[in-house]
Each structure stands twice: as structure tokens, then as C-alpha cells.
Write a structure and sequence with these properties.
alpha+beta; 5-stranded antiparallel sheet; elongated
Length: about 750
């Protein structure tokens, strides 16, 4: 058989074997890996969605804590509460806040009044309106109030979802307990509209190509793709329409195909109950107490509320909040086989559910497999054809020519020096290679050595190239190469996957050809046109209809065609969002600090003020906080009149970490004395080291003056009462019958006769 035939058959076998092996690998392991990656992305999507929900719930809980602290510190004055509380509830005009209020225990706000709450609800025009309804109907037996007795200080307890009867808006309530003198004194609440959560789930639904919904702790719906499917509309005895979300179990009763999801949600609650029962802080008697305390709480709800108080999911990591994952043979809404993912929303004990069609993940795997197989088949076929052409025209034909020349030389060895042909080499082959080996033995040895060296160099080069490609593709950021004309030369895998495109799809395209890349295009245009060798900038890029922030670093390098640029992009969106959230929090704190009616301060442990607010400076008679901070160098001696009183105050502060309602006399700037009431606490770092003191003061000079006046009046009244009492006793004696008879007898006595 000729070498031509051997080459053709060998290349054919090699090509078919390579394609078959690749198809087998793709259809077995490849599809499995793609499907696994799809599930991982869904889990990551769920974690991201839960993070967004958690951010909002923490924001509302922080607002409620601020409301609680403020209500504890404010004087028990209706005017003060009505002036100050609405400003906190408004939360800088946040329309997602539906309202809020302060709900004292009986006779805690006014010793003569059992129900004295303060509640404001947001009107349609966005303003807050004061309501007094609960002071008539009562609130101490409401489910959101009775739970407050069992809450730790500062902890927010989220209510079930409900539809407000006045605004018909779906909402939930965050409740935090308040304390007075270390004892429970009532609760504060913030109501949050759920219409924003409906839009939230719809936005995440687009990213999953399935559907997303949220349920509360009782598995009552908070949001759903079609809210009407999970709402019950009724009319009360007065004919007023009442809308209420239904439970997952109620939907399952109407739509039996939904039962697996409803049962899974119920199973999650059951697992939480079992886990809570193993916890030392779980108290079974709490459920019975809750059920007795409120007409709105049944046995099952009371037991679940006691479980949440124990917080069995409090230690679940933030990186993966997936509670359960399972498959449905036929989802009732998608009408196809689907995968269900149930995620836990920290603090709220809500559950976020993502339902995604299985077929979509399989379709992606099939599409990728078919694409890769077609590409490989084409490349292998093209390579085999090119190899055949190359072998025939660049190897076989020259070998045939050399073989012929070798035969001619063999018949005429005088053409070369005789020493090269002193020993004739035997051959075992009968083809052209055997003839060539016979003629060019010495050259074959040299070629063999050269090929061995070249093969090693090629292997080293290929290994280096693969290592470099693996490193670049493994970088968790975008990397791209751009020529001097602003066209992509290449990109890494991260950048391509971020846009759901292949790496080849970028080559030859202008920077900025993708929607949302205008800032990137302008940055690269200016950089390429400048004389700078490197530059960096944070740029906003819209990825999948969502704004993201990237730190872009670009570096020029020399190519054969001229200058080119390599750029690296690092996603800094979370850092930008964190910076913005911190800025808002600092702004809110600064506003409260600067505008508070009470004096607020921070001081060092050695008696120097760190910060004071305008109200604090005004109470002590200073023109500004800066003037007070600069003037006071020793708080103990410059401020407090009674050193023993100050010494006892610091002793209690050291022993208990805080002192509340401490009354003392202090010096003002002009040397006069005033009375203040002070609440102060110690602030420690994470290692327990004392950092500084912070607290609040109120000027109670006028109250002290009134108390002194009242005491004086009481003393004067007591003297007057004693005088009046003596006069009454004398009158009673003189008006008695005995005294009258005695007077008559004395009148009848003749004194002259008596003495004689």
C-alpha cells in the first residue's frame, strides 16, 4: 500500500475517533456540568435576592429601633410626641413606609389613662396623618403587641402579611419593645408597604425565566406573579370590602398541583420547630401565653411565634440561605417539569421561592453541546483536509522527489565524496520512506535530533500558553485586549460569560458596541487618544438591565501593528452600594444629632468632650458646640457642682455600664448653676476595651424650681391647716352644751357674796 493511501486512511480514522470521543464526553459529563452550573447560578440568584430583601428589612428595623429609643428618651408630653415622632416615621419621605406609632403599656404614659397611643398613617398624597382609633378600640390584645413582651431589646419581630382595610395596601409591621427603668413599657411599630416587594419579585423573575414569590412566617403569601390568585376578597357585616392574602395550603386546596410546594413550606416550618425545641432559649409555655393574650393568635400561630423567638435559623450563613431544593414533575403554573428552590430571609422568617423550568437548563446544555460538536467536527474535518493537502504537497511529493534523486545518486555516487557512502545501510521497508532512509541515513539522524528538540520546545510553548489562558480565564474580573483603533482583539471567559456571549463574538467589534457601555467607550476613546501609558476609573456599566460599577484599569503595550491596550475590570458594585448606604446612614444620624431637642454628647474617659450637639451647647449657655468642646478640659471639675454626686455617678457607670435618669446640679458657662437629668452609657470595642462615654441630657432646672415652689407651698399649707384645726377645736368647745351651762352658772354667781 502506498504512503498516500496509508495517510488518507489514518487521517480519516483519527478524525472520526476524535469527533466520537468529543461527542461522548459532551453528552455525558458536559451536559451534567452545565446543568449543575445552572442550578448553582439559581442558588446564587436566590442568595442575591435574599440579600436585597434583608437590606430593606434591616433598614426598617433600624428605623423602628430609632423610634423606640426616641420614645424612651422623650418627656411624657403629648405635644412633644406629636411634634417629634412623625419626623422619624416619615423617614425622609420614604413612601414605602406606610405608617408607625408608639404603643405604651396601660397607665405608662399617663397614670390616669389606660390607652394612650400615638399612631400616624401615610395618606395618598404621601403626608402622615395622626389617628386616635386604637385609643378607643384598644390595642393591648393585638397579635403584633403581645409578642413585644417577649422580645429582647432592639429585636424586630415581623408580623404576618395583611391588607390595610383603609388603603387596601398589602403590608407588614415591624414591632420592637420599649423599656423604662429596665422593665417592659410598651412597643413601637413601623408599617411597610408590600407593593414594592411585588415589583422586586417581578424583577428577579426575569433573571430566572421561571417565577418567584414570597411567603411570610405562616406561609401566607406576600407576593405572587398574579396577586389575584392568592387573595381573598370578602365583605364584612357593614358591607365594606376586605382583602386578605391566603395561605399556601389554601392555594394547594384549590390547585392540587401546588401541593408539593405548600407541603415543602410547611415542612420547613416543622423542621424549624424541631430545631427550636433543642435550643436552650426555647420556652414551650410562651406559646400558651401568646394564645391566651390575643384573640388574633391560634395555637399553631402561637407555637410558630415562640419558635421565631428562639431564632433557630439565626446562625445560618449569609453566603447560602437555601433551605430546600426539589423537583416537580409538572408545575401547575409553568405546566412542565421544574425545580423549586426555597430560601430563608434572615430576621423576618419570610421564605423566597424560585421555580425554574428544568427544560431550560437542559436546553442550554443541549445547545452548548450541539454548538461545540458542530464546531469540533468542522475544525477536525478542516484540519484533516489541510493535513492531507499538506502531507501530499509538502511531504509526500518532496519525499518522492528526494527518493528519485537518491536513486540517481546511488547509481552515481561520485557526485558526493566517497566517505559518505562507505557503508551501505540495509532497509526493511519497501516504501518511499525506506528508500529515503537508505539514501539519507546521516541526514535522518540529524533530523531526528532536530525534531526531538523542536517537539520539546512546542510542548513547552503549548503548556505555557495553556497555563496563561487558564490563569486569565480564572480571574474573577473582566480582561480585554483592544487595538489602537478601539476594536476588541480578545476577551477572557469572565467578560464573555457576563454578557452571555462567546469570546469570539467580541473580536473585531468596537468597544461600547454592547448596550449600557457608553461610559466604557468614552473612557477608552480618551485613553487611546492620550499620551498616558496607564489609566484607571470607576465606570457604571448596565449589565442585564441592571447598573453595575467596575474599576477599569488600562495599560498600553507595543504590538507589531502599533500600540494596543489591555484593560482589567473589577466589579465594585457592592462597595459602591455600601458607601452609599453608609452615607445615608451618616446623614440620618447627623440630622438626628444636630436637630435633637435633648443634649447629646460623647466624651473621653479622662474628662474631655469629643462631640456635643447644638442643644447640649445651648443648655450650658455656649454659642456653639465647638466653643463648649474647646472650653471644657475637665468635665468633673468644670461641670459638676457636687463632686461626691459625680463620684457616685461614675461608680455606677463603671459597675453597670450605664446610668439613667440621674439628676444633678451643674455649672453653666456664666457660672450659674442649673439642674440636669442625664442618661449615659459606656461604649466598648469588640475586645471589650472601653472607648468613650455617650449620653443625653435634659435641662430640668424649671422642673426643679417648680418642685421647690410646690414644696414651699405645701409647708405653708400645712401651717395654715394646723391653725385652722386649732380654731375649729376651740369653736367646738365653746359651742358645746356643757360650756353653755357653765357660762350660765357663772353668770348667776354673785362674786361679792362668793368672796365674802
Amino acid at each position: 500500500m502506498s504512503l498516500n493511501s496509508q495517510t488518507l486512511i489514518g487521517l480519516g480514522i483519527f478524525a472520526f475517533g476524535l469527533i466520537g470521543s468529543f461527542m461522548f464526553a459532551i453528552n455525558t459529563e458536559g451536559k451534567k456540568l452545565v446543568f449543575t452550573e445552572s442550578s448553582r447560578l439559581i442558588r446564587q440568584t436566590g442568595d442575591n435576592a435574599v440579600s436585597d430583601l434583608t437590606s430593606r428589612s434591616k433598614e426598617v428595623a433600624g428605623l423602628t429601633r430609632t423610634l423606640g429609643i426616641t420614645s424612651e428618651q422623650l418627656p411624657k408630653s403629648e405635644t412633644t410626641f406629636k411634634n417629634f415622632i412623625p419626623k422619624i416615621i416619615d423617614f425622609q419621605g420614604d413612601l414605602g413606609i406606610a405608617g408607625g406609632g408608639v404603643w405604651p403599656e396601660p397607665y405608662k404614659f399617663n397614670s390616669n389613662v389606660a390607652r394612650r397611643s400615638f399612631f400616624w398613617g401615610r395618606e395618598l398624597d404621601g403626608t402622615l396623618k395622626y389617628y386616635d382609633d386604637y385609643n378607643q378600640s384598644g390595642y393591648h390584645n393585638e397579635d403584633w403587641y403581645v409578642i413585644a413582651r417577649y422580645l429582647k431589646p432592639g429585636r424586630c419581630f415581623w408580623s404576618r402579611s395583611y391588607v390595610d382595610p383603609f388603603s387596601q395596601q398589602p403590608m407588614v409591621t415591624c414591632t420592637i419593645a420599649t423599656q423604662e427603668g429596665g422593665e417592659f413599657s410598651g412597643a413601637v411599630t413601623i408599617d411597610v408597604k408590600l407593593e414594592g416587594l411585588q415589583a422586586f419579585t417581578e424583577s428577579w423573575q426575569k433573571k430566572t425565566n421561571g417565577y418567584v414569590f414570597i411567603v411570610d412566617r405562616d406561609n401566607k403569601f406576600i407576593s405572587f406573579p398574579d396577586p389575584k390568585l392568592v387573595q381573598r376578597v370578602e365583605k364584612d357585616s357593614k358591607g365594606k370590602t376586605k382583602t386578605e392574602f391566603i395561605l399556601a395550603s389554601e392555594l394547594a386546596a384549590v390547585k392540587p398541583q401546588f401541593s408539593p410546594i405548600a407541603e415543602a413550606l410547611a415542612g420547613v416550618n416543622q423542621e424549624m420547630l424541631q430545631q427550636a425545641r433543642q435550643m436552650p432559649n426555647y420556652k414551650p409555655e410562651t406559646a400558651a401565653n401568646l394564645e391566651r393574650a390575643s384573640y388574633q393568635i391560634n395555637q399553631q400561630q402561637a407555637e410558630l411565634m415562640s419558635v421565631i423567638l428562639a431564632d433557630p435559623l439565626g446562625g445560618k450563613t449569609d453566603s447560602n440561605r437555601l433551605l430546600k431544593q426539589f423537583e416537580l414533575k409538572d408545575d401547575w403554573l409553568l405546566q412542565e417539569k421544574s425545580t423549586v428552590y426555597i430560601f430563608h430571609v434572615p430576621n423576618t422568617y419570610w421564605k423566597l421561592v424560585i421555580v425554574k423550568p428544568v427544560a431550560e437548563s437542559v436546553a442550554v446544555a443541549d445547545s452548548i453541546a450541539q454548538f461545540l460538536i458542530n464546531r469540533v467536527a468542522f475544525i477536525v474535518a478542516l484540519g484533516a483536509l489541510l493535513a492531507l493537502v499538506a502531507v501530499k504537497f509538502r511531504l509526500l511529493k518532496p519525499i518522492q522527489s528526494l527518493s528519485q534523486a537518491a536513486k540517481e545518486i546511488e547509481h552515481n555516487p561520485s557526485q558526493l565524496s566517497g566517505s559518505e557512502w562507505e557503508q551501505e545501510l540495509p532497509t526493511e521497508r519497501r516504501d518511499e520512506i525506506g528508500s529515503l532512509a537508505q539514501t539519507f541515513s546521516n541526514m535522518a539522524v540529524q533530523l531526528k535530533q532536530s525534531f526531538a528538540t523542536l517537539e520539546k520546545q512546542n510542548q513547552d510553548l503549548a503548556q505555557t500558553k495553556e497555563q496563561l489562558k487558564a490563569v486569565i480565564d480564572a480571574v474573577p474580573g473582566s480582561i480585554s485586549w483592544i487595538d489602537s483603533g478601539g476594536l476588541y482583539i480578545g476577551v477572557n471567559r469572565y467578560l464573555a460569560e457576563n454578557w452571555n456571549l462567546s469570546q469570539d463574538a467580541f473580536i473585531g467589534k468596537e468597544v461600547g458596541f454592547l448596550t449600557g457601555n457608553s461610559q466604557l467607550a468614552e473612557f477608552m476613546r480618551q485613553f487611546l487618544a492620550s499620551s498616558q501609558e496607564s489609566a484607571s476609573q470607576v465606570i457604571e456599566i448596565e449589565v442585564n438591565e441592571s447598573p453595575r460599577y467596575y474599576l477599569i484599569a488600562a495599560q498600553k503595550y507595543q504590538q507589531a501593528e502599533g500600540k494596543a491596550t489591555v484593560s482589567v475590570g473589577i466589579d465594585v458594585t457592592e462597595r459602591k452600594q455600601a458607601e452609599e448606604a453608609l452615607r445615608i446612614a451618616e446623614s440620618n444620624y447627623r440630622s438626628i444629632f444636630e436637630n435633637a431637642l435633648e443634649g447629646i454628647f460623647q466624651s473621653t474617659t479622662y474628662g474631655k468632650f469629643i462631640r456635643v450637639n447644638p442643644a447640649m451647647a445651648s443648655i450650658y449657655g455656649y454659642e456653639s458646640p465647638a466653643a463648649m468642646i474647646g472650653d471644657i478640659t475637665d468635665i468633673d471639675t468644670q461641670i459638676y457642682v457636687d463632686y461626691d454626686n459625680r463620684k457616685e455617678f461614675k461608680r455606677r457607670l463603671t459597675e453597670y455600664g450605664q446610668v439613667k435618669n440621674w439628676e444633678c446640679q451643674v455649672y453653666a458657662q456664666d457660672g450659674s448653676t442649673i439642674w440636669i437629668e442625664e442618661d449615659t452609657r459606656s461604649v466598648y470595642d469588640s475586645q471589650g476595651n472601653l472607648l468613650y462615654y455617650e449620653g443625653m441630657i435634659q435641662d430640668i432646672t424649671e422642673r426643679k424650681r417648680r418642685e421647690a415652689d410646690l414644696q414651699k407651698q405645701l409647708e405653708e399649707l400645712r401651717v395654715e391647716i394646723d391653725h385652722q384645726k386649732r380654731e375649729q377645736e376651740v369653736a367646738m368647745i365653746t359651742q358645746s352644751e356643757y360650756f353653755q351651762e357653765l357660762q350660765e352658772e357663772i353668770a348667776e354667781v354673785n362674786l361679792d357674796e362668793f368672796w365674802s
